[in-house]
Amino acid sequence: MDTERLIKSIIRGIMCLAGIIGNNWLCISSLPKSISQLRPSDVLFINLAVSNLITNYLVDTLNIFHTEQYIPAGKVFCSIRFFLPEFSETSSILSTMFITMFWHQKLVGSLKRGGAPVQMDNLHFISVMLTGSWSFALVFNISRLFFVAEISENVTTAECKEELPSPEADQAYKVVYVTLVNVFPLIGILYASIQITLTLMQNEKRMNKMGAEFRNEGNTTSAEKSRENTNNAATVKSFKSQAKTRSLVRAAKSVVAVAIIFLICWVIHLTIIIISSISPSSVTEDIESFIGASYTCIIPYIYLYGVQKLTCSRRAGRTVGEERVVSQ
């Protein structure tokens, strides 16, 4: 193995290991102690972690160890190599969109509608939605299991290539794929993220005002405190409400951060596709590979930080205060 390939493999290996640790961490920390404690947000995080782990275990490892050098490029192998990356990518994108939409509803419901129930805060609804997303990912990418071909003069130089019935069919498939799997989810993520950002900005002043009121209450005279004893219960309730709001805002900020990273990765990915169609090169392929790997290794840590689970103790991660967002 030459030096350049070794360096690439080491970098990809580090990114893959970071992704495996982060996604397993996110998955395990989202598991409840009992089924009755399972929350919709936990299901969404577990679903995203599983989607990313498919990429980490079954896609990245194959690329890192260059398995095509040791396994004959038969149609079964080629089918798996084409199907798994797109299948896991589709599921990860949809999972990210669902998480963004969920916290958008949660934030709006808690800060604008006084904590009114939201549609996505329902296990049955989330289960149906995720089942549909996995089915969509399977149906939409299942063609990759069949439309493959081996281009080779002998077994040792065999390479995999997708081969649709015609160039027109290939072009149409790519357009539909980019539209349904990239553009529509991106629009949903951006819309929800913009709404979250606007809501955060609108409520920042209110939260600062509430904090100032609590500080002023601590400086009142004894006579004033005596007259305000009847309002103690309301004050405590207001303080708890503020704590919940702060936890919710923390999670919402992590969702916006993920949306920004997703947008950056998608723009770079699209740019590379355009460049590759004009002038293919190994450099653009490497950049595209690293961009895809960076998403699965960074995202879980942002979510872990946002929902206050970024701790080595699972119990501590689950009880960083009963005000933790995912218990809402």
UniProtKB/TrEMBL annotation:
The keyword Cytoplasm does not apply. The keyword Iron does not apply. Keywords: Cell membrane, G-protein coupled receptor, Membrane, Receptor, Transducer, Transmembrane, Transmembrane helix. It is a multi-pass membrane protein. It is found in: Cell membrane. It comes from the Eukaryota. Residues 23-303 form the G-protein coupled receptors family 1 profile domain. GO terms for molecular function: G protein-coupled peptide receptor activity. GO terms for cellular component: plasma membrane. It holds the Pfam family 7tm_1. Its main location: membrane. One of its GO terms (biological process) is neuropeptide signaling pathway. The chain crosses the membrane at residues 6-31, 43-59, 123-147, 175-200, 254-278, 290-307. Signal peptide: none annotated. InterPro entries: GPCR_Rhodpsn, GPCR_Rhodpsn_7TM. This is G-protein coupled receptors family 1 profile domain-containing protein. It comes from Tachysurus vachellii.
